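Protein data sheet
==================
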Amino acid sequence: MITVIVIALALCAVMLFYMAVRSRRTQAGQVFRTVDLNAFRTLMDREDELFMRNKLPRSKFSQLKRQRIRVTMRYVARIAANASAVLHVGEAARVSSAPEVAQAATQVMELATQIRLQCLLAMAKLSMEYAVPSLQLTPAMLVPKYQSLRENLRLLGDLQTQNPALLAAAI
């Protein structure tokens, strides 16, 4: 059991290192990438997982669950990258002379920071589930937070006069 925990922690460390390196590499040219929230929601559905666990042989279930976890990790990484890009956009908007723009930018930045932290937690949980497919950890509540970030970003885009179309279409 201790070996499994050590392997899971090592996977978490590798994923965090990978995310940090990738984040630094893409910071120069922040690019927003769309996220299909319905597909992400389906991947995170625990009822679907329970159905597969009951209907498939254990080896096939483990193989399929690991494949789903890899795809889910890509979605989480994309959400984290978008949240990071939103932080940079929010930082520029926060220094606006219009108080409502500055306040909206602050809210967007707080939400983006929360999402980044939830992404780290989700990656750790997914790494543990990848190491031990029989685990069923509680998924992070990324979808509602990410939808809220989208709405707040659109609001910020509406308040800004210089580039509302860029922000509204960002994520």
Remarks:
- The mean pLDDT is 81.
- The helical segments are 2-26, 37-43, 46-55, 58-94, 99-131, 142-159, 164-168.
- The first helix runs from residue 2 to 26.
